[in-house]
Amino acid sequence: MPLSASLARGVAPTTPGTLHARTVTGELSAPPRQGLTVRFGRGEKPDVDLGVGVDDLRVSRRHGELTYRQGMWWLRNTGQQLVRLPRGGMMHLATEPIPLATGYTPLFVKGSGYREHLVELYVAGHDDQGPVSRRRAETVRPETWALDDDERLLLVVLGQRYLLYEEDPRPLTYATAAKQLAYLRPDGNWSERRIEHRIETVRRRLHHTGFRYQLLHDKSQGRPADNSLLHNLIRGLVESTTLVPPDLDLMEDDTAWPDSAP
User: For residue 122, what are the contacts with CB-CB under 8 A and spacing of at least 6?
Assistant: First the structure.
C-alpha cells in the first residue's frame, strides 16, 4: 500500500505502533497498517517517501524501507552502502529485515568519504504522544559512576589517551602505568598485580549498574586474548563524563616521567 494513500486517511499520533521518521530534508508519520511500506533514499517521490543524502551519490536512490507486518515495523537495507545501527550493528543489502523496538532508533547511511546520513526513527508505544519538543525543559545530566580517589587516578593514568581524545585510543599497559604511578605515588605500592586487582574490582562493581559496555568475560565464548574489557571500561567512563580532561591534572607534570610508550 502506498504511503501517500495511508497518510490521506490521517494518522493518529497516539496510536501504538505509529512510525515517525525524520532526516535533514524532511519528516513523516505513518500509521501501523498491515503491509504499509515507507521507503527512504536519495531519490524523489514517488520512488521514496523520505529523502536522505540527497546530494551524495554513494547513497542509493532507494536505500532502505520499513514495512509494517506482524505488529511491528521491519527495517530492510535496499541500498549498495551499509546502514549502521545502534551498538555497532550493520545492515547489508543481503541482511535479513530486523524489527524496530518501540521508542527511538537512529540509523546512519554510509555516504562518500566520512559522511554518514542520519535517519531518525521513532515508534510510538501505548499512551505515547510520539517525539515532542522539550526546548524549555531542564537538561538531564549524564549518568556518571562513583570512583574513589585511587581508582580515579589509576583510570586516568591508564586512559590518558582517551582523555586526550586521540583517534582509536588504547589503554596503557599495566607495566607502563605502574611506572607512572610509582613516580606519582612512591608510597602507593602500585604493582602490576595490584593494578589488575583494582581494575577487576571496578569492572565487577559497575557490571551490575547498567554500564553501557561489556565489563566481564563471557565464559561461553572463552577468555579474550586482549584488553578489550579494560578498553570498554575506560571508553564508558569517558563517554559518560565520569572521567573528563581536567582529570589529567591528577598526573601533574609528566615531563619527568618514564617513557609512557607501551
Answer: 19, 20, 21, 103, 104, 105, 130, 131
- Least Cα distance to 35 among 72, 63, 9 occurs for 72
Would strands 64-69 and 37-41 be described as parallel, antiparallel, or unpaired?
antiparallel
The Cα–Cα gap between 233 and 199 comes to 9
State whether residue 245 is helix, strand or coil: helix
Fold classification of 3-123 (topology level):
Tumour Suppressor Smad4 (2.60.200)
Query: Is the pTM here over 0.85, yes or no?
Result: no
Q: What is the pLDDT along the chain (262 residues), one digit of tens a residue?
A: 444 434 434 444 458 899 999 999 999 999 999 999 999 999 999 999 999 999 999 999 999 999 999 999 999 999 999 999 988 899 999 999 999 999 999 999 999 999 999 999 999 987 766 667 778 888 888 899 999 999 999 999 999 999 999 999 999 999 999 999 999 988 888 999 999 999 999 999 999 898 988 999 876 555 544 589 999 999 999 999 999 999 999 997 544 444 454 4
Amino acid type, 66: L
Domain spans in the chain, listed from the N-terminal domain onward? 3-123, 149-251
Alpha-carbon distance of 262 to 242, in angstroms, equals: 25
All three cell numbers of 88, joined, read 555497532
What's the one-letter identity of residue 180?
Q
- For 259, residues 6+ apart whose C-beta sits below 8 A from its C-beta are none
